[in-house]
Design goal:
Layout (H helix, E strand, L loop, with lengths): L9 H8 L6 E4 L6 H7 L7 E6 L2 H10 L7 E5 L5 H7 L5 E7 L4 H5 L26 H7 L2 H10 L6 H14 L5 H11 L2 H4 L7 H12 L1 H15 E11 L2 H15 L19 E3 L9 H6 L7 E7 L1
Parallel strand pairs: 1-2, 1-4, 2-3, 4-5
Antiparallel strand pairs: 5-7, 6-7
Helix pairs in contact: 7-8, 7-11, 8-9, 12-13
Amino acid sequence: MDFKHYSVLLDECIENLNIKPDGIYVDGTLGGGGHSYQIASRLTSGGRLIGIDQDADAISAASKRLEEFQDRVTIVRSNYSDMVHVLDQLGIQKVDGILLDLGVSSFQLDTPDRGFTYRVESAPLDMRMDKRQEMTAETIVNTYSEKELFRIIRDYGEDRFAQNIAKHICLARQEQPIKTTGQLNAIIDRAIPAKVKKTGGHPSKRTYQAIRIELNQELTVLQEHLDEMIELLNPGGRLCIITFHSLEDRIVKSSFKKNENPCTCPPNFPVCVCGNKSKGTVISRKPILPSEEELAANSRSKSAKLRVFERK
């Protein structure tokens, strides 16, 4: 099956990366290589692009797509959390731009046996972005305590019926293990009031998001490595991050703000005495959103937000 992934906010990312033909760039979420193709095509043989992804299917698809630029592209199977180490191995200390597209790829959603979608009833509960990982969504659903399930569905899924969904999951798994998306969908369906189901989109959407985030540690990885990525940038280098839900966006917004103004002095101090120096500037005061044309062409882009930070 072809690795399909519509590159969200593509023009906006390329424009905001300010690509220099001889610069060094990192695509930390390579996917099918859509964004990377556009970056690589703007580089000369003196430039370099490092593409990182933990998904073997993505690596294979992107390698094929970027074949014509092999003189300037290096592809590494890893998580962007390991970016410093990956670059160090390649003898690179600083870069001119970093891109992260934090969404689940269309390929992952459209390939039923990956278990990311609630739309195919027979799919296994997998959801691993890196198949080398042993733990799957099935592990979480069948072994987490009711309290833990409630916490992740409430915090990561932002679902107001989190408590009831967690309770129903724990009751159902006493009868038999929950192994397929169909089983989980039926359980979630029973836990949500009928009148809400008429208006609120697919009842499983928020729970699946929560389990996926927990399994792949998506928010933790993002939060723990943003400062590190800003440190990797050369002066004038830019970090562009596309998020797809409010939790990710909040982390990025807050980190960018803190790096722009890290001063911890009380507001009434006449001069700064804490010694914390600004690392750069937030370029996107408000998040950059998809155009009407993009929304019409790709409904999955509707929750996408791009934020940009430029290093001093």
